[in-house]
Design goal:
Elements lengths: L3 E6 L3 H12 L4 E7 L2 H11 L3 E5 L7 H8 L2 H9 L6 E6 L5 H9 L4 E3 L4 H12 L7 H8 L11 H4 L3 H11 L4 H8 L3 H15 L4 H10 L6
Parallel strand pairs: 1-2, 1-3, 3-4, 4-5
């Protein structure tokens, strides 16, 4: 049984086929479609609703950044949610570490990035990680990518002000990239309680996952508060 359905997007046929072999060899995951450009990627996400999209950032016609933006456009997200489909996660594939385009894709909704020369075990782990709603890059890398990309920060939304004091503590810790266990140690709460707080934060702020909490914090100048 394929628990994690993967869509591969890359303009190089040989690379796509190599990644397909790696993914299909893993337990509990498999490739359900491939695309050679961003236009086809957006169409196949609408059609297949995969769990995870491996998205090349540099492609002709429509690149991975714009495709990611369109995949996470509010109307598309709403249509997928209305069908009861599980959330789509995007991982950007790049040849450059700390790529500016990768940072923009993350701002548009991607859950992180992988270098194209990553190992098969790391690729499989990354797919499982983003499927679980987590990021696939180190907190320090994510902070480096986003630092200075929101200048000046936008005003603090009313939704953030509606968070409880404890939720704001958890928000600040998650925005630093801490795990549930690390957050729990910081705010003196169990992991299950932290998970409940994170769920409430995501719901109140209208965010999809923990990665978007980090983006939200940078966007509104809330890092370190």
């Amino acid at each position: 049984m394929t628990d994690i359905r993967v869509l591969l997007v890359d303009d190089q046929d040989l690379f796509r086929e190599g990644v397909r072999v790696i993914v299909d060899a893993q337990d509990g995951m498999g490739v359900v479609g491939t695309a050679g450009d961003g236009f086809e990627a957006v169409r196949l996400v609408d059609e297949l609703v995969p769990d995870v999209v491996l998205m090349d950032v540099r492609m002709p016609e429509m690149d991975g950044v714009e495709a990611t933006r369109q995949i996470f456009a509010p109307d598309r997200v709403a249509r997928r949610a209305a069908t009861g489909a599980r959330p789509v996660r995007v991982v950007v594939l790049t040849t450059f570490n700390l790529d500016d385009r990768a940072a923009t894709a993350i701002r548009h909704g991607a859950s992180g990035f992988l270098l194209k020369d990553t190992t098969p075990p790391m690729l499989a782990d990354a797919i499982r990680t983003v499927h679980a709603g987590n990021a696939v890059l180190a907190p320090g890398d994510l902070t480096s990518l986003l630092a200075g990309s929101f200048t000046p920060p936008t005003p603090t939304p009313a939704a953030y002000l509606d968070l409880t004091d404890k939720e704001r503590e958890v928000f600040a810790a998650v925005a630093r990239g801490l795990s549930n266990a690390e957050v729990g140690g910081l705010v003196f709460a169990s992991e299950s309680t932290v998970k409940t707080h994170v769920g409430a934060i995501l719901r109140k702020l209208g965010l999809r996952d923990r990665v978007q909490i980090v983006v939200y914090a940078h966007e509104h100048g809330l890092v370190g508060r």
